[in-house]
């Protein structure tokens, strides 16, 4: 997902088009929302839903529910000079929170998400979806960095090598000076420790 | 290797090995298997979430379109949105329910009328059936028991789902025959 800076003129065109599509949908032509959904499906899935759920199948279900809800409630939406992405993101975040609450997978993470549900972009902010997504990604990365910083050095190294740089297990083991089976134990403990701290972190 | 890196017991060693296999699958782009213990699933989700944030997960266009189509299908079916159904849809649902009740009421009335007719005929047959048999007038087709085919002919496949309309038509036809018969004074 590349994040080009969108020129103001192109941004205005895009917003005008979006406004027309939403107006058509509000008049009853729900199919007018389809280009909007196609445009925002990727950012919603990759930036908003999947990072908060961690399960691709559930994330797809939540994306589908997000669009269903948007179609049901499109008559309630009103433009405030920002892309409809902000509204869709809010619906998606609510759905993610519901999943966490229903499954009770992580109360701490659910509580953190509840705080996140307050829109983080100021009304006067430049309404560029790519920049919003980038900002959101930066916020979440900062949260991961904060959780990683609390881990012992060996755990941090194990996670970075295996899960972020995707080095093979035996290579990771060699880098840490242990057998592969021992590296498996280190990684296992490292992810458990990370999960505890990540859930504890405030957004 | 430090002593701290050693597994505490065989169980932890096995869990670690299974988790490592799961990570192999996830880093290769796979999804967690449907059947996973709650703790394993939670760990897998942590890994996927972390990788989603640190990397750039993408949703293939084809997949996105399928999800969008499914959302539209949900709305067309009128489901998948548990809260705040628009008032217009509530009104439509109420109207549909009222139509259904009205239709059921009509059928009940027809059944009562048919039962009354049978009762009248039976009681007349008991009281003087032999004399009446000779007094009966010939009945018009509309007043006799008959197949409904003449009303519709061959039903095209495209109209196969319109059974409700056909039932209404049959009922109206039968009611017309019954009224005609009764207005003429019934079986004489």
Helical percentage of chain A: over 70%
The N- to C-terminal Cα distance of chain B equals: 109 Å
What radius of gyration of chain A results from the CA coordinates? 20 Å
Q: Give the termini distance of chain A in whole angstroms.
A: 23 Å
Poorly predicted spans of chain B: 82-95
Main interface by residue count: A-B, 60 and 51 residues
Helix content of chain B: 55-70%
| Number of E-type strands of chain A | 0
- The general outline of chain B is elongated
Question: What ranges of chain A have pLDDT less than 50 throughout 5 or more consecutive residues?
Answer: 1-5, 117-126
Instruction: Give the topology string of chain A: H per helix, E per strand.
Output: HHHHHHHHH
User: What's the number of extended β-strand segments of chain B?
Assistant: 0
> Treating each run of at least 4 consecutive H or I residues as one helix, how many helices of chain A?
9
The helix/strand series of chain B, from N terminus to C terminus, equals: HHHHHH
- The class by helix and strand makeup of chain B works out as mainly alpha
């Amino acid at each position: 997902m590349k994040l080009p800076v969108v020129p103001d003129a192109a941004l205005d065109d895009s917003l005008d088009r979006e406004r027309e599509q939403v107006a058509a949908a509000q008049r009853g032509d729900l199919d007018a929302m389809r280009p909007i959904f196609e445009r925002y499906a990727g950012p919603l899935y990759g930036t908003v839903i999947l990072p908060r759920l961690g399960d691709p199948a559930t994330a797809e279900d939540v994306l589908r529910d997000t669009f269903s809800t948007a179609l049901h409630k499109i008559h309630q939406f009103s433009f405030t000079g920002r892309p409809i992405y902000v509204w869709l993101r809010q619906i998606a975040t609510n759905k993610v929170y519901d999943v966490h609450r229903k499954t009770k997978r992580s109360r701490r993470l659910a509580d953190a998400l509840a705080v996140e549900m307050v829109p983080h972009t100021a009304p006067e902010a430049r309404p560029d979806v790519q920049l919003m997504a980038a900002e959101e990604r930066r916020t979440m990365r900062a949260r991961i960095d904060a959780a990683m910083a609390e881990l012992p050095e060996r755990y941090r190294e194990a996670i970075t090598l295996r899960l972020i740089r995707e080095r093979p297990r035996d290579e990771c083991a060699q880098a840490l000076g242990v057998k592969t089976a021992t590296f498996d134990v280190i990684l296992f403990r490292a992810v458990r420790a990370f999960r505890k701290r990540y859930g504890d972190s405030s957004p | 290797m430090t002593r701290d890196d050693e597994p505490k017991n065989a169980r932890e060693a096995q869990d670690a090995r299974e988790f490592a296999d799961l990570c192999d699958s996830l880093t290769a782009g796979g999804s967690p298997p449907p059947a996973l213990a709650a703790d394993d699933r939670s760990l897998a989700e942590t890994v996927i979430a972390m990788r989603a944030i640190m990397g750039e997960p993408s949703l293939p266009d084809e997949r996105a379109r399928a999800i969008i189509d499914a959302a539209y299908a949900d709305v067309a079916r009128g489901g998948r949105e548990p809260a705040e159904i628009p008032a217009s849809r509530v009104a439509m649902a109420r109207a549909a329910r009222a139509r259904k009740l009205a239709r059921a009421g009509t059928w009940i009335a027809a059944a009562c009328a048919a039962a009354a007719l049978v009762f009248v005929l039976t009681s007349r047959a008991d009281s003087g059936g032999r004399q009446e048999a000779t007094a009966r007038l010939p009945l018009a087709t509309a007043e006799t028991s008959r197949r409904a085919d003449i009303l519709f002919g061959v039903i095209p496949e495209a109209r196969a789902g319109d059974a409700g309309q056909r039932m209404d038509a049959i009922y109206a036809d039968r009611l017309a025959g019954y009224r005609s018969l009764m207005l003429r004074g019934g079986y004489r």
